[in-house]
Amino acid sequence: FLADIFIAKEEEMKKTKEETDGGWRGWRKMVLKKKVMETAVHTSFYFGPEDNGTLMAFLPGQYISIRIPGYPYTLVRNYSLSSSPTSSMYRITVKREQGGEVSSYLHNEATEGDSFEIGVPCGDFVAEKEECPLVLIGAGIGITPLLSMLAQAAKRGLEALLIYRAHSQDTFPLKQEVEDIVRDAEDISMHVFYSVNDAGEDVSNEYSEETLHSLIPEKKSLFYLCGPESFTTDTAGYLKSLGVKLETIRVGNFGPLVIETVEE
């Protein structure tokens, strides 16, 4: 009985997305329109429909699936959308992972004009209609869904604070874009922690419960966390100690989902 309910609910969601303007069901052929190196290890990929049709507007924080044919497996990965929700192309920003089959393929082999199969935007880690202040806390490639949320907050005139942690300035993807949003929006602010400073010194201990306390005067905001599991676990613990209610903390799953299917 419960299985039937879940199946019916899933079918309803698929139908809704299929019937949405620019939406679809299953896989849709898209062309890699643009490939941009962001850092030595991060590259952005821009996809547009092969049929030149419209693209469904996504919710800030959602992801798309990308399917890479291969033998003996077809590989599927989920990557957060890092573009504005209403842009004319879908953008994902991918870190090259050592031993990562899909990230290596995208970085080393994919070229502009290549065709890919893309799944419809999905995911529940979203900031959609909130009216209260947002605090977005991320590390590493966890910046990607938070950037989409930050852009939407700026567009809606919401107050938002981005707290971001990176290894160094050289590994901060989309840095200029984030800085532009902060500069142009009156109610958007940012604080960045680096693990290594310009002198090459380890300053990773600067990110702590005490520094978060000083940066977040309003504990009644909505908090969105995205990054490695150890980072989000530690950060959630810090916030809880500071009196932030658990129900106001939302955590995004970090890293691409790995799905492998055997080719017939």
Question: Can you walk through the features of this model?
Answer:
The structure is a single chain. This protein is an alpha/beta fold and 264 residues long. Helix content is 27%, strand content 29%. The protein is built from 6 helices and 12 strands. It has helices at 2-19, 101-108, 143-156, 175-184, 209-215, 229-241; strands at 27-37, 42-49, 63-68, 73-80, 90-95, 115-119, 134-139, 160-166, 188-194, 222-226, 249-252, 259-262. The strands form 2 sheets. The protein has a 7-stranded antiparallel sheet, with helices on one face. The longest helix is centred in the N-terminal third of the chain and has 18 residues, at 2-19. The chain is globular, with a radius of gyration of 19 Å. The two termini are 33 Å apart. The model is unreliable at 4-8 and 256-264 (pLDDT under 50).
Layout of strands and helices, then pairs:
Elements lengths: L1 H18 L7 E11 L4 E8 L13 E6 L4 E8 L9 E6 L5 H8 L6 E5 L14 E6 L3 H14 L3 E7 L8 H10 L3 E7 L14 H7 L6 E5 L2 H13 L7 E4 L6 E4 L2
Parallel strand pairs: 7-8, 7-10, 8-9, 10-11
Antiparallel strand pairs: 1-2, 1-6, 2-5, 3-4, 3-6, 4-12
Helix pairs in contact: 3-4
**Gross geometry:** globular
| Share in helix | 25-40%
Q: How many E-type strands?
A: 12
Number of helices: 6
**Main beta-sheet annotation:** 7 strands, antiparallel
| Low-pLDDT segments, ≥5 res | 4-8, 256-264
Question: How do you describe this structure in short?
Answer:
This protein has helices at 2-19, 101-108, 143-156, 175-184, 209-215, 229-241; strands spanning 27-37, 42-49, 63-68, 73-80, 90-95, 115-119, 134-139, 160-166, 188-194, 222-226, 249-252, 259-262. With 264 residues, it is of the alpha/beta class.
